[in-house]
Design brief:
Layout: E1 5-13, H1 17-27, E2 31-33, H2 42-63, H3 80-87, H4 90-132, E3 143-151, H5 155-165, E4 173-177, E5 184-192, H6 196-205, E6 209-210, H7 222-277, E7 279-281, E8 284-292, H8 296-307, E9 312-316, E10 327-328, H9 357-372, H10 375-391, H11 395-418, H12 425-430, H13 443-471, H14 475-498, H15 506-542, H16 544-567, H17 571-604, E11 614-615
Parallel strand pairs: 10-11
Antiparallel strand pairs: 1-8, 1-9, 2-8, 3-5, 3-6, 4-5, 7-8
Length: 631
């Protein structure tokens, strides 16, 4: 339901303005009206914004340091230093906070820079040592070890030239190292001292490049360089381990405190932004907003306890011409609350109109369950959604899981009515009979039942629109909805009279009701109303999809069992049957949800839903924040 709202006006001495705004933020029920863009205390507000972003960067860096979750607790404002800041004037403590954050930021940046430098050096050495692996040769008397990068397609040519060059003397030995480069080979050569210049010239001619160690290891032979790099790698790993321990200790010590500082500054930034935009009148700060009427008395009592009469509070109900400015606050019972997820896809209903959430909670699972109509599918999905809802951390995911669970319950009930459990499995194995009809054998009754559902659902939507028109004293709107209802009922009654489902005497009455309905339609909605009324018949027929889609799902489930008949109880037969059931399971839930939602958004809510509302955003202290800056 849509909460009844009231307009609040609060006047307080400007010296107590921040205290009142802090109270409103902690209370978290007032949707503030901020009429002015004029800025007051710009210097402090700007300094707070800069300080908040510095703290965000610090906390984001600390969050990136790996640490056991159980080893860290983050009680907001639990630190004694934060408590002291909360109790003092923010204007006095901001310079102290700025210095503290800048000092900590510089120290953290220094440590992180050294850590990153060591990490980069470690990666370089690991890559080099991985390329080299183990050297196949070493420098010896009369022979020298060379390392060259050679193009893979040119290496055979170079190898033949080297072999010809050494044909009359001691041979050049070679070993190809396995690297990640697809077009390059790292070739290790053991070359006789007398042939070094000739081999070097051959390699230069084909564009090969000599492998060189990092500059700090230059002047050493390859074996010595590798040994030094291995020692340095071991040393870096020890240094990194020590620095990581220091960073983790820093996070454990400073992480909770920096988070508390960030939460405090974020809260104060919001407060100063509100304070700077409120109107001033004769030394008083004027704060205005909207809140639900049911919480007004409690709010008044708490305000009086806090300020002891120093805040003048005036409240009133919104005037009809203000309805377009009033935010829409929705309140639902525990069962229907998850179905509010459907309204997240559209603009909220306008204040003073109808909230369709409870009606969606009744009819959406009923229609979707009827489309699925299989107790086996419903049972499997119910178990799955119970698990998802229990494990999900997101409120939206839990709401969607609950909606699907209600669909599953209705699917089980409709499965009993249609006698379906994984198609005709229950009938084959246990001779279970449908409590109502078997869909695949009673096509027309099911389709007629779907149209009857559509008739009732569309008429209910028109009735909701009629009630809203009467409550809002919109005579033309009410006349249009009443006229549409009369036209639909008159046409149905006339058709039933022709088909002898009603006494012939009902026909003149239906014609009279049709005339009255057309007059009301024309008076209330003009030509557009007549066109809209005619489209209602198309909307009613659209509900045939409930029976038609459900019938196709039932036939596909039965077809899965037929494959077992044809292929026998074999691995192939069972595999094909399970594959078809899995496909049908996915399609059944996807199509039932989509089509049942469409019937509500278009055919049902289109008769009364006024998507012109404003979101209700109470001024509240945000306790769950992402340290990542919004992009």
């Amino acid at each position: 339901m849509i909460e009844k709202m009231c307009r609040l006006s609060m006047a307080v001495p400007e010296s107590l303005g921040m205290e009142l705004i802090d109270f409103l933020q902690a209370d978290g029920r007032v949707h503030l009206i901020l009429p002015s863009e004029e800025q007051h205390n710009v210097d402090l507000a700007d300094r707070l914004l800069v300080l908040r972003e510095k703290l965000r960067a610090v906390v984001e860096t600390l969050e990136g340091i790996a640490v056991s979750a159980s080893a860290e607790s983050v009680p907001a404002a639990a630190d004694a230093e934060v408590e002291r800041i909360l109790s003092e004037s923010l204007a006095l403590t901001v310079p102290e906070l700025e210095k503290s954050v800048e000092k900590f930021q510089a120290e953290l940046a220094r440590i992180m820079k050294g850590h990153d430098r060591l990490t980069d050096e470690k990666k370089l050495l690991e890559r080099i040592l991985a390329q080299l692996g183990t050297l196949a040769f070493k420098d010896s008397l009369g022979r020298r070890c060379l390392l060259w990068w050679v193009a893979k397609d040119l290496w055979p040519l170079a190898l033949r030239q080297i072999e010809r060059q050494c044909a009359d003397g001691e041979k050049t030995l070679f070993h190809v190292h396995d690297t990640a480069k697809e077009d390059q080979l790292l070739v290790e050569l053991s070359v006789p001292a007398a042939r070094i210049s000739a081999v070097t010239e051959i390699l230069h001619d084909i564009g090969a490049a000599v492998w060189t160690p990092p500059p700090q290891y230059a002047g050493k032979n390859y074996a010595e360089s590798m040994e030094l790099m291995k020692r340095r790698l071991s040393e870096i790993q020890s240094l990194l381990k020590a620095e990581q321990s220091a960073l983790v200790a820093m996070r454990k010590q400073w992480g909770p405190r920096q988070k508390a500082f960030f939460l405090l500054i974020d809260r104060k930034v919001d407060q100063y932004q509100v304070f700077s935009r409120c109107d001033r009148l004769g030394g008083a700060l004027l704060v205005e907003g909207w809140m639900p009427q049911r919480g007004l008395e409690d709010f008044r009592v708490r305000l009086e306890e806090k300020f002891a009469g120093r805040v003048a509070l005036h409240s009133r109900e919104p005037e009809p011409d203000e309805y377009g400015q009033v935010p829409t606050a929705l309140r639902h019972g525990a069962f229907f609350a998850p179905f509010a997820v459907f309204l997240k896809l559209v603009q909220p209903p306008a204040y003073g109109t109808a909230d369709p959430t409870s009606l969606i909670g009744v009819f959406f699972p009923f229609f979707a369950g009827c489309i699925i109509g299989d107790a086996g599918y419903g049972l499997v999905m119910l178990i799955l959604m119970c698990f998802v809802r229990r494990r999900a951390k997101s409120e939206t995911v839990r709401d969607v899981a609950f909606v699907l669970m209600t669909m599953c319950v209705w699917s089980i009930l409709w499965g009993a009515a249609f006698g379906e459990f994984f198609g005709d499995f229950a009938h084959r194995m246990f001779h279970v009979e449908p409590l109502w009809v078997e869909r695949s054998q009673a096509v027309m009754p099911v389709l007629m039942f779907s149209v009857a559902l559509g008739l009732g659902h569309v008429l209910l939507g028109l009735a909701v629109g009629l009630i809203h028109g009467l409550k809002a004293r919109h005579k033309k709107h009410a006349m249009e909805k009443l006229g549409a209802m009369l036209v639909i009922l008159a046409m149905v009654a006339a058709l039933m009279s022709v088909r002898r489902l009603l006494p012939p005497q009902a026909f003149p009455g239906s014609i009279a009701a049709l005339v009255v309905g057309l007059v009301l339609l024309t008076a209330g909605g003009g030509i557009g109303g007549l066109i809209e009324a005619m489209s209602s018949f198309g909307h009613i027929l659209s509900y045939v999809r409930i029976g038609a889609i459900g019938l196709s799902s039932a036939i596909l489930a039965v077809a899965a069992s037929k494959f077992v008949d044809v292929l026998g109880v074999s691995a192939l037969g069972l595999f094909v049957a399970l594959a078809i059931h899995l496909l049908n399971f996915v399609l059944a839930f996807a199509e039932s949800g989509l089509h049942a939602a469409r019937l509500h958004y278009v055919e049902f809510m289109g008769n009364f839903y006024a998507a012109q509302g404003k979101d209700y955003h109470p001024f509240i202290y945000r306790r769950k924040l992402s340290w990542k800056k919004d992009s």
